[in-house]
Design brief:
Elements: E1 5-8, E2 15-22, E3 27-30, E4 34-42, E5 44-49, E6 52-57, E7 61-64, E8 70-74, E9 79-87, H1 91-95, H2 114-128, H3 131-149, H4 162-174, H5 182-189, H6 193-204, H7 208-225, H8 230-236, H9 242-253, H10 257-264
Antiparallel strand pairs: 1-2, 2-9, 3-8, 4-7, 4-9, 5-6, 5-8
Length: 266
């Protein structure tokens, strides 16, 4: 069995997400030109690295530094894991740091599940392809994993900058139907994406991508009350598909678009 998938986006160079789901498929000795951040979802994986054999059961992390030779195989009948690959040269720009630690201190560290949860959210956004949400989740994951397991010092608090965040809010209000990129917004406002997210969260309580979703839901409610069908609104308001629209609407309102529309017309 082999259900492996490798996802990449043209507008996010140097970043890939590997969904591994296989049985009996060993990977020979190799290395990557990227940092790897992975989580075992089902079964147990194994590999040899630094002269030792490692076994990783479900629920554990798997980290790897660039150019570190290793093998890979399934210890169980079936192995399922996610692995994020980020080219080393892309990290300074993504994290907004000039100097980064040399690498992960431990390859399979204990973790409280937050890194794996972040990786799961990133995988969902990779499937949807919404640039603003995907880039936001990517930056949050990289900051978390390198602070916890790579010796990176936590970032200094973002400066208060009401002018910039107000301009960003106004831009989101005016362009909420459009696909937006965090990189595009940062270039437009002259701030690093991480600083933009932190400043916006400080000012409005949520990051830009959440604010954008809330704005879309607010417009969806107005249109549903007027009699619009949910199926018409999903793509019109910038959602990935009907399921994404319904899930997001329910997340912020507690009900599905169809139920909201029915109640509004009573």
């Amino acid at each position: 069995m082999d259900a492996n998938r490798l996802l990449a986006r043209a507008w996010l160079p140097g970043v890939e997400l590997f969904h591994a789901d296989f049985s009996g498929q060993p990977f020979g000795r190799h290395s990557h030109d990227a940092f790897a951040v992975g989580a075992i979802l089902h079964g147990a994986g194994g590999y040899q690295c630094r002269g030792a054999r490692h076994v990783l059961p479900a629920g554990t992390l798997s980290l790897m530094n660039p150019e570190e030779p290793h093998t890979g195989h399934a210890e169980s009948e079936r192995l399922v894991y996610r692995m994020l690959y980020v080219e080393e040269g892309r990290l300074p720009a993504l994290l907004g740091r000039k100097h980064l630690p040399s690498g992960f201190r431990s390859l399979n560290p204990a973790d409280d599940g937050e890194v794996a949860a972040r990786l799961a959210r990133l995988a969902t956004e990779f499937e949807r392809g919404d640039a603003l949400s995907l880039e936001s989740e990517l930056l949050a994951l990289l900051e978390l994993v390198f602070v916890r397991h790579g010796g990176l010092r936590p970032a200094a608090a973002a400066r208060r900058d009401g002018g910039i965040t107000a301009r960003l809010r106004d831009y989101l209000e005016a362009h909420y139907r459009e696909p937006l990129s965090l990189e595009r917004l940062a270039a437009l406002l002259g701030r690093h994406p991480r600083h933009l997210i932190e400043s916006f969260r400080r000012a409005y309580g949520v990051p830009p991508h959440t604010y954008l979703l809330q704005r879309r839901v607010r417009e969806a409610k107005r249109r549903l009350v007027q009699g619009a069908a949910p199926v018409e609104l999903a793509l019109e308001l910038g959602f990935y598909d009907q399921a994404h629209f319904s899930t997001t609407f329910r997340r912020f309102t507690g009900v599905t678009p169809g139920r909201f529309r029915s109640a509004a017309r009573l």
